[in-house]
TrEMBL record:
Organism: Flavobacterium gawalongense
Lineage start: Bacteria, Pseudomonadati, Bacteroidota, Flavobacteriia, Flavobacteriales
Protein name from the UniProt record: Fibronectin type-III domain-containing protein
Domain Fibronectin type-III: 31-129
């Protein structure tokens, strides 16, 4: 009997001490860092329509292999994408049309399909045949940010605009109201890139900007919106 008790106690101790170590937790997968664009530089005029794109490499805290996706479009919202390419290199050569304004961006993805955000958007213009004037680039939203909610009786609309013809003088037509798209022109040939407009509570407002240069070229911007409380 004593022998049986002794064996039972030893067995219990072995069972109590025989558990394996806790498994080593798998490190959380983190997305690669957002690429930063290098070339072509923002607002550049490219004399060759075989365009060389380059961006700085991303880093991955898990040391995962990275691939890059570049998108080139004819609008800054990437609704008219003309080229999408993927690969491990941080550069691409792409043949594009002449005499066209383009917009481009890049994102990084690891081998577990986790992606960074897209980079900032750069624009450039490809030189056309005997081009006299280039159209302005699409305006860029500054404020109010898209879908903002304002608590104010006056909204300050602000945007940025540029033209590869750096000596061109730019003016702006601003459309604003509760219609989508906005149809009421509240300012014409505005020389500054900001405009104060009155608003009322509990409304959704839409606005857009038409950029015009002094040679007759014009570019219609996208529609932006915000709300009031």
């Amino acid at each position: 009997m004593k022998k049986f008790i002794y064996v039972a106690v030893i067995g219990f101790l072995l069972i109590s001490c025989g558990g394996g170590d806790d498994p080593v937790p798998t490190p959380k997968n983190e997305a690669p860092t957002v690429p930063t664009l290098v070339a072509p530089a923002n607002n550049k005029l490219c004399v060759d329509n075989l365009v060389s794109f380059q961006w700085n490499v991303s880093t991955d805290s898990n040391n995962d292999p990275i691939t890059y996706q570049i998108q080139v479009a004819k609008d800054n919202q990437f609704l008219q994408i003309v080229k999408t390419l993927e690969g491990p290199a941080n550069s691409q050569n792409i043949l594009l049309e002449k005499g066209v304004a383009y917009y481009w961006r890049v994102k990084a993805t690891d081998n577990k399909s986790l992606s960074s955000d897209y980079s900032s958007v750069y624009n450039f213009y490809t030189q056309g045949e005997a081009v006299v004037n280039h159209l302005p680039f699409s305006p860029e939203l500054v404020q109010p940010v898209l879908n903002a909610v304002l608590n104010t009786a006056t909204a300050t609309l602000k945007w940025n605009a540029s033209d590869v013809d750096v000596n061109d003088i730019l003016v702006f037509d601003v459309y604003f109201g509760t219609d989508n798209p906005p149809i009421s022109k509240v300012s014409e040939n505005l020389a500054t890139n900001t405009l104060d407009v009155p608003v009322v509570p509990s409304k959704e407002y839409y606005w857009k900007v038409v950029v015009k240069d002094d040679k007759g070229g014009e570019t219609i911007g996208q529609t932006w919106k915000f709300k009031t409380n």
